[in-house]
Amino acid sequence: MSLFLSYPGWFLPLLISAGQLDHTDALIKQMGSGQYRQREAAARALLKTGAPALGALRNAARRNPDAEIRSRASKLVLSIERRTIAEIASSKLTDQEKQSRLREFVFPGMSIDRARQLLGNSTLLRSQRSLILGGPTNEFFSASGVLISHQEGKITDVVLWED
């Protein structure tokens, strides 16, 4: 039996077998092991799995009763999302495709703090008008080429900036 799952960052659904889902769930459970080496091995395997494990990891980060699993899953989600964003930014996709895939990770309404976690260092760009009258602030994230406008802590627009 196979399930079609799509995950953020890609339009094409993935064909994931029930066995693969069970394996991902088993690895997530192993991250709560009493043995450090088992926890580390599970985390490495999930990191290697990458984007196909994001859905299960996001769920574990939010809902797993084990604090160790929630903590490790949260860190893995951030690592995998960062890596996927970098892959999108450096891919040979058209600008429109990159923009669309990027908006699955960074989107209007999202917290600017979460975007900073995903995108790294930025350069703050404020116009004289926004300084005097208020209004959106712009930040440029050079590593991914993303320009974000935000106001009151929430993203209002996301643009891929190409040279």
Radius of gyration, rounded? 18 Å
The proportion of residues in beta strands is 15-25%
The CATH topology of the largest domain is Leucine-rich Repeat Variant
**Count of helical stretches:** 7
Q: Could you say what the CATH architecture of the largest domain is?
A: Alpha Horseshoe
State the order of secondary-structure elements, H for helix, E for strand: EEHHHHHHEHEEE
Q: CATH class of the largest domain, anyone?
A: Mainly Alpha
What is the SS-derived class?
A: alpha+beta
- What is the β-strand count? 6
Provide a short characterization of the protein structure.
It contains seven helices and six strands, in the order E-E-H-H-H-H-H-H-E-H-E-E-E. It has about 160 residues and is α+β, with helices and mostly antiparallel strands.
Structure in words:
The chain has 163 residues and is an alpha+beta fold. It folds into two domains: 2-90, Alpha Horseshoe (Leucine-rich Repeat Variant); 106-160. The chain contains seven helices and six strands; from the N terminus they run ββααααααβαβββ. The strands form two sheets. The chain has a four-stranded antiparallel sheet with strand order 3-4-5-6. Strand 4 and strand 5 (146-151) form a beta hairpin. Helix 1 runs antiparallel to helix 2 (36-49) and helix 3 (54-63) packs antiparallel against helix 4. The termini are far apart.
What are the key terms here?
single chain; 163 residues; alpha+beta; Leucine-rich Repeat Variant; 2 domains; two-stranded antiparallel sheet; 7 helices
Write the layout of secondary structure elements.
Layout: E1 2-5, E2 14-17, H1 18-30, H2 36-49, H3 54-63, H4 67-90, H5 95-102, H6 112-119, E3 123-125, H7 128-133, E4 137-141, E5 146-151, E6 154-160
Antiparallel strand pairs: 1-2, 3-4, 4-5, 5-6
